[in-house]
Structure formats: C-alpha cells, structure tokens
Batch of 2 targets.
Target 1
Amino acid sequence: MNLPTRHRSNALLMAAASAGAIAGSLGTLAIQHWQNPTISGTAVSAPGTQASPVRNPALTARTGDHRVKLSQIINADDLEHKSVDLQRLGSEVAATDQALALRMAGGIASQADRSDFLRGVVAAMADHDPLAAAQFALQQFSPGALQADALRITLGKWGAANPRDAYAWANSNLSGPVRDEAINAVVSHWAANAPDQAAKWFTETGSTSQPLLTALVGSWAAKSPADAARWVETLPDAVNRDTGRVVAAREWAAQNPSEAAAAYPNPPLELAAVLADIWGSSNPADAAHWVNQLPSGPSREEAAATLATVWAASDINAAAAWSANLPDPSIRAAAVEHIAATWGAIDPDNAIAWLGTQPENLRDRGYLGAYNSWAGTDPDGLADWISQLPASPQADTARRSLGEVTIESDPAAAMDLALGMNPASQADTAGRWFRAWCRSDDAAAQDRLQQNWNTLPDTTRARLGSEQSRSLP
C-alpha cells in the first residue's frame, strides 16, 4: 500500500513520541532520507513505491544485532560509561537507518537512557544534514534538557562546517538560554577550526557578549593560547579584554603555567587568582615562588590567598610551612587566613591549635575563617566546643560564626549564642539576630526578649529596644 507523506511522517513521530520527546506533527519537515520505518510489522515505503512484505535478511540481522547491543548496554553494571555507550550506539544506528534508530528509541523504557540514545541519533543526523537535524530537534523535542543538548550538538557540528549559516539559523529560530548555548557551540567549533575568521567576525559584530567571547577565546586558546591572548589585547572594549584575558590565561595555565604567568608579569586581581588556582593545583611550590616574585599590592595578596586555599586542600602541612616563611606581612596574613579557613573545614581542632602558634596580629582573621568553616561543616561539633570555652574574645568569635549559620534554622539557639557573648560586644549581634528572628516569628522573638530583659546589659537593651520600635520590612 502507498502511504502519503503525512502518514510516513507520523510513523517517525510515533517512534519518537513514545520516548516522551516529540511534540506535534512533523508536518512539512524535509527529512525524506530518514523516512522508511516499519511499525507494528507493517512496511512503510516512500511515496509512489509499493512496500515489499519481504524483509532483507542482512537488514534483519543488523537490526537484531543493534537491539542486542542496546539491551546489553542498558542492563550492564557499567554505569560510568552507560551514557556514552548509548550515545555512541544511537549515532551508529542512525548513521545507516535513522528510522530504525527512532523506533529503537521508542522502545527504551528509561527516560534518561532514551535521552542519551537520542542525543547520539541527532548527532548522526547532523553529520548528514545539519539544517534538517536542527529543525527536527526544534520541532519534535519538547523544550528541556534533551532539546537543548540536541540543538547544541547539531549547531556545533554545523558550525564546524558552515558557521555563518549555523549562526544565522540559531539567531533567527531560537531564543533565550537555548539560543545562547547553541550560538556558543557554533562559535566554539568555529574558533577551533578557523580562529582568525571567528575572531574577525566577532570584532565586526561589535559584540559584548561575555559567553560568546568565552566560547571563542576558550576554543582558540585550547589550541594556541599565545595567539588567543594576543588577539584579546586588540579588543576595543575594556570588559571584553578583561574577560578574554582570564579565559586565555586559564587555558594557557592548564597547558603551561609558567609560560602563562610570564605572559602576565603584573596581572590584575582576577587574573592573579586564576593563575594561582591552576598552577597551585599542579605544582604549588613553583606557584609559591611565582607569588613571591609578583609586585606588591592587591593582586599579590589575592594570588597568595588563592594559593593558600588550593595548597591547604591538598597538603595542609606544606601550606602551613610555606606561610611561616613569607616575608611580607600582608601576604602572610592572607595566607594564614585562607589556610585556617580550609583547615577549619577539614580538621578544626588542629586548625585552632595551629592558629594559637601564630603571631597575635594574624590570629583574629585566622580564627574567624576557621570558625566560619567549622560552623558550615559541623555546627553541632562547634556548639559543643563553645560550651566548654571560658569567656574570651575567641569564644565570642566562635559564637558569632555559629550564630550566622543557625539564625535561619534555629533563631532561638542563635539568640542564646549572642546573649552569651561579652556584654561589651553583644549588642550589635543580638540586635541583628533579634530582627532576623522577628521576620520569621515575631511572637516567639518578643517572648524570648521579655524572658531575658532583666538580665541584659544596658547597651543590649538599648539596641534591642531600638529594633522593637522599627517596623519590619
């Protein structure tokens, strides 16, 4: 029997709709090379031809092989590679028979597995006809992660072959975050294959899109960081230059950190942090030597603080030993503070003990960082530790750190922490937390205040009275 195009299109639609991803009819979508499915045992032929009831034995065997392989992947215990394997199989099947690929997708029970398989199908479609694949993904997949991924994959492949057409289509047919992600994929592939052309296009448009610039510079720098960095310096827009420098430096440092650092002898704040982060992750000792060579100022402090955090996460004792030998007081203070913050989240008891060995002028900022981390990772442990402390400025700092974490979840406990502080320093903290409590439960906050009113010092009464008279937002 001869079926009109509409019915043949619906056959594809049925296969993909069962995957929960198709919305609406294929309509006039030009995907003739995908249409020749067999559904429910009925052969469906192209217009003007007679369907044959005889199945090709080789085709039948190949179909069976694909289905066996699909079953093996879905039922395997190798969850780590399952997604990649499903995408690869989807591409493999669709490369020779897109209709079969869509029917197979329709038979996959798990939505996540179906989506992975369909990502591979669309990738193969894009290799053959990216325009039709893009239209298919846009019209047949419901808005969501699958559609966004399918468009990103398709536009990326299209962008590698014909970036201007791919960009024009995405710009005209897509909107919002999906459009931005697809265009970024186009530019990323364009820059990887023809960076000079992509850069010229970006400059001609006068664009100030930071995601677009990031995609362009990132892809270019992955292959030739020095060339990408040189081009960034020619950008007329200052914000574009700042963004481009950071992106180029990040890629460059991942490949050769010493070379990247040499290219920026006096890096601005954000750039210094990026270089210290990447270099410190691979070779903190060399990164430390670089930090010592930087000109004095905020960028050097930022680099030292970043290195301290990164180094402490991998080797806390080595980071602590490094900080002890820093000659610049401001650099050492930044390092101690960030080491303490990292250590406080990992091993707070030893972090506090280490801070006790530091010069007095470095302890306060260090204690604050350690207590903040401790409060964020183990509030019950910090509360128990506070209960054993005698009154002291250090105890007040710990109370303040814990209260900032608990004020939303347990405002009564936070207020108790504030009222346990030294009378000379509790007023401001008690006032802020009382007002926060009033916003969530005014009656309970007022009741607790009345219970404690007669025991409060005058300064705290004055502050809390002021908060009572203020109207809540």
Target 2
Amino acid sequence: MKSVVEDLKMEVIVPLYYPELPRWLGVRPMAGILLHGPPGCGKTKLAHAIANETKVPFYKISATEVVSGVSGASEENIRELFSKAYRTAPSIVFIDEIDAIASKRENLNREMERRIVTQLMTCMDESNRLVQPADGDKESEISDHKPGYVLVIGATNRPDAVDPALRRPGRFDREIALGVPDESARADILSVITRNLRLEGSFDLAKLARSTPGFVGADLAALANKAGNLAMKRIIDRRKFELSRELTDEEHIEDWWRQPWLPEEMEKLSITMADFEVTLKELIFSNYL
C-alpha cells in the first residue's frame, strides 16, 4: 500500500495540488483511476486519502444514486455531477460500485443502461480536453488545458464487468488492484485506525497485526471500534461496582451513573490489549457460525 500511495503522490496528487505544472508542460493529466479488490479492502479510504492530501472538492456518488427509472434522468444526474465538479475544479469525482452503471454494453438489455455508459464516457472524455489558445497566445497554446481538471476515481469488486471502453487510456488511465493486506500493511492500517484511541502504554500493534491474517481494512476498523466499546463497557461496569459500595443511600445507588467523572479518574483510563484480544476472539467465532 505504501508504494501505491507514493506512486499516486507523483502521478495524481502533485498534479492536482499544483495544476500549473501539467499546464506548463502541456501534459494531459491522468483522467481516471479504477480501484478494484474485495469488499472492505480500502478502495473508498484510498479515494478519500487522495482528496484529503490534495484538499480539493470531493464528490462521492454510488450507482444507486445515479440510476433513475425515468428516461433521461440518469444521464442528467451524471451530467449534473460532472458540471458541479467542473465548477469547483480541480476536483475529484468518486463513483462507488461503478460496475453497476458501467457494465459491458453487450451485456446490457435496456437502451437506457447503454445510454448511461455512453454519457459517463462522454463526461470523462471532457475531463482533460485541451482548450483552443486565446487570441493566438503562444503560451496558452503550449500549456493551457480545459479549465477544470476533474479526476475520476471508480471503485468495483468486479473489474471484468466494467465496459472495456472505460478501461482504456484517456478514461481510466490507471488501475490499482487492492488485495488482502499482509502483516506489514495491517500494521500500517492499524496504526492509522488507532491513532485517536487512548491505548495503554504497553499496547502491541505488531502483535495485533500478526493475529489478524486475512483481515481487510474494514475488518480492522470494526475490530478497533468494537474493542473500544468493550473497553468503555468494562470501565463503566467497574465504576458501577465501586460506586455501589460507596453509596449507602438506596436512591443514590440507583443514580450511580449520574456521578461525574473527575479529570484524575479519566487520566487512568485506556483501551487495553486484552480488550482487542477478547473482541478478536468474538469476531472470529461469529464468522464460524
């Protein structure tokens, strides 16, 4: 994953962040990236990461939001999406489950579905079209691209289902296969996922990465979230037990949860390795049911 991110920095992020560079060189910037891999492998997160790095407007849409039963409405949805992206360019359009709206045309039964694919290709072709030089300006003739570089990122679990015409250079110039992360990649993912969690000092991320073979990014995110909630429940249970021993008034015992948390109490609280280990066992067990 690190090598993929580094490649994207050079091929995508820098041209988006500094659009004057491809303009000056007269280079056509990358039109699109097709991300494919199993569910939960990080396709959406990678698209968001590119947008976060470049700080450009990010338009995310799923196939279900595009498709309409009204004739012509689906094509209009696509045109409006790209029109909005051009108005705020440079920008990114992210189409999740793109195979649902851009399947191979020979496999499509309805004319409407074919028109949707054609409309998407038309919009992508416009994303990097050269403009005519203004008033014979030589500098413009050399370097100016159509104002509004729009990078299109598509995500799919079924790349072979996507229309081949979309997968050619000039549309999706680059395809990135995201597989199940290895131990090193899982450690990197866990480091990002847990960076805002208050972990105990002896927490062993490397051990956790070794213990999660076959987990994709979504699985690791679910693990961290469930472990955090387990830790919170453990902490609250312990506090309830301690307060029930201190409070003698029956009415006050019932209101134990209203007792304020003091800053010095909070400082001692953390999510432990044991919380993750218990949660991991539960997740593995539930997958066998």
